[in-house]
Design brief:
It is a multi-pass membrane protein. With 511 residues, this protein is mainly α. The chain has a single domain, classed as Up-down Bundle (Amino acid/polyamine transporter I). The chain has 17 helices and 2 strands. It has a two-stranded antiparallel sheet with strand order 1-2. It is globular and about 85 Å long.
């Protein structure tokens, strides 16, 4: 997932302000697709090289391509559901406007008769007739309908609650990953080898959490000190609204692409000079579980599609160009991961790939070493408050009742506390980023990327057929329109849940 946090019902004001800043620039579809590329490629890509090295390059490439294809399928599902939701909202507005006009034109003496007659005719008239009256763009995506709103439109109460539960679990995983990544990066950069403080780590050095960092302070203690400082500095933002982050997000995005480009170039240079240390296996099924979760997490964009697609002015060839975007993303992930696994030995690849460049034998320039080593600190720190506020607002939406308000203590203390505390506790217990990303992607990520879009498109098709008639054509209908694809996605999601759970149980049993 990229640096941009999920944009759903109840998202942070700062995040919406950042997205709205781009709306005036998304007049060309190509610009929107560049933004989509930027949205998908993010933190998950930094954990992908180690997952590739653990699972083997061939099985990793096959799984990456397949999961990219599955993500594209569900992306088209979400776009179809967005178009169906827009059609329903547009129809309701047209009917409301028509009733208001008829009310205004009626006389006082016969108004009751006309209203009753108009109501009965509206109930009998097929909704498809609105298209015959000249509305050819009924399914045009012009209103930003977030995933939470679509869930409310197409799901029953149980389905809506399950959707929010899935989103909340995913955001908790995101926060735990971010809360662990920043202290871990700081620990790796600052806990240097004795007598070589400027070089970070050496090529063959392996550290344990119990190794000393500064004097009597162990590495794990340094990690927890950094985690405490991180929580004290960024945690308070959870209790307020995050605003005016647009330019900060643009800066961190620019830094991210500079870091990716530098890492790829440095790895290619080392391989070209014959200094590549990596000899990855073809396949190692033991590493498949984490690879699956990392790949799912790295293709996550479905929850942010409404804010991405809606501002695009021309959507005529949207599906084709989204497919092209996925091909480019696959190529980028493959380039980053393959250069990494052939440049570094598999056992020397770290959970956060940027930290492999904190070695003097890899990067001679100290400024570049520190930039890459501390890169996650700058970028992730700007996203943590946004995701925290988004999660807090989703908790509020889940428990909100029509016409009800929360007491001040619940609104300002309880919700922020239950948002901040669990991920910090998880990060305190472990900094295994590969496992955190893998579990988040394998469970909550699978729900958001596969299960929710499949059920959304299934129910939106039923509602569209019922409301507009069987012959109505959704101009943004997915090319995977056969019901087989919905069933296949759900079957794949169930298989993923079963495989990952069985793999975890078997692994724990062996231990």
């Amino acid at each position: 997932m990229a640096w941009l946090s999920p944009v759903i019902l109840g998202a942070a004001d700062g995040e919406r302000e950042f997205i709205s800043g781009f709306e005036c620039h998304l007049c060309w579809l190509q610009v929107g697709l560049v933004y989509m590329f930027n949205l998908i490629v993010g933190t998950g890509a930094l954990t992908m090289p180690k997952a590739f090295a653990t699972a083997g390059w061939l099985v990793s490439l096959i799984l990456l391509v397949f999961l990219g294809f599955m993500s594209f399928v569900t992306t088209t599902f979400v776009m179809e559901a967005m178009a169906a939701a827009n059609a329903q909202l547009r129809w309701k507005r047209m009917e409301s406007h028509k009733e208001e006009e008829e009310d205004d034109s009626s006389t006082a003496s016969d108004s009751d008769v006309l209203i009753q007659d108009n109501y009965e005719r509206a109930e009998r008239r097929p909704i498809l007739s609105v298209q015959r009256r000249g509305s050819s763009n009924l399914f045009e995506i012009t209103d930003r309908v977030e995933m939470g709103q679509m869930a409310s439109m197409f799901f029953n109460k149980v389905g809506v609650n399950l959707f929010y539960f899935c989103i909340i679990v995913y955001l908790y995983g995101d926060l735990a990953i971010y809360a662990a990544a920043v202290p871990f990066s700081l620990m790796q950069v600052t806990c240097s080898t004795p007598g070589n403080d400027s070089c970070g780590m050496e090529a063959d050095t392996k550290y344990n959490d119990t190794d000393l960092c500064w004097g009597p302070i162990r590495r794990v203690d340094a990690y927890r000190i950094y985690l405490a400082v991180f929580t004290l500095l960024l945690g308070p933002f959870t209790f307020f609204d995050v605003q005016k982050t647009k330019y900060l997000q643009i800066l961190t995005s620019l830094m991210r692409w500079i870091a990716f480009a530098v890492m790829i170039v440095l790895a290619l240079v080392r391989i070209g000079r014959g200094q590549g240390e990596g000899h990855p296996p073809l396949a190692d099924l033991a590493g498949l579980r984490n690879l699956f979760g990392v790949c799912v997490y790295s293709f996550m964009c479905q929850h942010s599609l409404p804010s991405l697609v809606t501002p695009v002015s021309s959507k005529r060839h949207l599906t084709r160009l989204v497919f092209l975007d996925y091909v480019l993303i696959l190529a980028f992930y493959s380039l980053l991961s393959f250069t990494a696994i052939f440049c570094f030995r598999g056992d020397s690849l770290l959970d956060m790939y940027t930290l492999n460049f904190a070695r003097c034998d890899v990067v001679g320039l100290a400024a570049v070493r520190f930039f890459l080593g501390l890169f996650p600190v700058f970028t992730i720190s700007t996203n943590f408050p946004i995701i925290a506020v988004t999660l807090r607002n989703n908790w509020k939406t889940l428990f909100h009742r029509e016409g009800g308000t929360y007491p001040w203590v619940v609104d300002r203390v309880v919700f922020p506390t239950i948002t901040l505390l669990p991920p910090v506790v998880v990060a305190f217990c472990t900094h295994d980023l590969e496992s955190l990303v893998g579990i988040t992607g394998a469970y909550a990520g699978t729900g958001i990327q596969y299960v929710v879009p499949a059920f959304l498109v299934y129910h939106c098709r039923k509602d569209t057929e019922l409301a507009f008639g069987g012959g109505t054509a959704n101009k943004h209908r997915s090319p995977f329109r056969h019901s087989f694809w919905v069933g296949f996605v759900l079957l794949w999601a169930f298989s993923c849940f079963f495989f990952v759970t069985a793999n975890i149980v078997l692994s724990e049993t062996k231990l």
